[in-house]
Each structure stands twice: as structure tokens, then as C-alpha cells.
Amino acid sequence: MPTLHNDRKKVQVPDLALWKAEGRRITMITAYDVTFARLVDEAGIDMILVGDSVGMVVQGTNNTIPVDLDEMAYHVRCVARAHTKALVIGDLPFGSYQVSPQQGVESSVVLMKNGAQCIKLEGGVHMAETIAAITRVDIPVVGHIGLTPQSVHRMGGFRVQGRTEGFEAGGRERILEDAHAVAQSGACAIVIEGVPMELAQEITQKVSIPTIGIGAGIYCDGQVLVLHDVLGLCDSKYRFAKHYADMRTSTIDATQAFIADVQSGSFPDEDHSFH
Asked: Which residues are tagged catalytic?
């Protein structure tokens, strides 16, 4: 039987800085509903990210751009109803914060009112003013730099960033600049996605806030994966995603067993019927 962590203390935003100082690795899982939120919380996860990746994982979109604020509020609400000890982070979707800092604040308030305890947004230098505006109203912010999925069309696909030198978008020096801008604007942590591990290591050493890696190597202060990848539910081939189970096969097998039982007349039996 697995060890459950129902008796642990609620994770709070200040814990993140403390854990970085102590050298304690931080864990984050992306999940979208109450059932999975409860399960990963019982497993002892530190943070649950309600990500706009729900578009690709649950809704079947090709990227995250179609996801809107109402949809994110719905999924944040679902996860918040699990009353987790893990910190719940709501993802600001494309178009909900890029127009102005004021729009960013207003969209963040929506997610917080639906149960988020922190919000995440993509971007570095050009989002510094927005991050500062959101934190000024006491809403904690997690930044996101490197491979930013909402910039998929500018990048020409989901491509590793930071392999080239320079201050242009996607350049190594620009990503370093982005990291410092996010930290100096008051963010409590920063997701680093799809960059060389050496660059992520340099960022982790130079910024005061925790770094959470996805496809960024071992040197970040923590790591995040989408739960569907961890469980092997998706037929994904992402190099950075490790499958810790094969629930895709288990789901197909269980469904086929149900079909066989129904077609043979063996389900429902006496144990699953009423008199």
C-alpha cells in the first residue's frame, strides 16, 4: 500500500523560498479535475498547476491558444474543490493578460475567486510590468520562460529555446534577461520550459526565487509534469515526459473487459444488483 500524506501541513507560498534555501526539491503536477487533484494530493505533491494545457490534453486542441478564461476558471474551481494541502496555481490563458497590466490583474482576480492560491503567466521582460501589477494587489505569481506554449506561432512550433546566442526572442541572453525580470518583478517562482539544462542551471544559480523545470534538466529547484504523461494516459512522445505507469493500456483493457462482460450477460451479476 502507498504511503498517504493526508496529515501534512498546507503548502503556502512562503514555503517555496524556504525550500530553495534549504535545497529541498519542489514537486508540481498539472491536473484539471477534483478526482486527480485528490489523488496527487494524497501522494504528497507540493503544487498542482491547473494549466492551459487542458486544451491539448482534455479538449483536443493543437495548442493552448484556444483556451479562454472561463474555461480556466471552471477547471480551477474543479481542482479547488479537492481542498488540497498542495498549493493550487491557476494558469492565465492566452489573451487574458497580454493587453495591459490592468487586464492581467482583473483576470488573476477571476482565477483567485474560483479557488487559485497563485497564478501563472508566460513571458519575461515584456511581462515584468504586468507581474508587478498583479503582485501589488497581493496575488502571488509564478512566471514561465523559455519555451512558452502561447508563443507557438512565433517560435514556429514547440521548439527548444536558448540554443542560440543573443538578446532576440528565444536567444540565450534574452532568456537570462527574462528570468531576472520575472524575479525582480516580484514573482514567487518561475517555470523554465524547453531550454538546455546548462542554461536552466545558470538561471537557478542566479535568481533568488525557485525554478521549476519541464524539459530543462536536473538542476532546477523543482520539476513539473502533466499528470496524464506521468500516468501514461497520453500517447505522447515528448522527450522530457516520463511515463511512471501505463494507464492507457490499463484503461483499454478494463473497458474491453466491461464490453465482454456486458455482451456475455455476466454483468451485472448478483453482487452488483438490487432486490
From this structure: 193
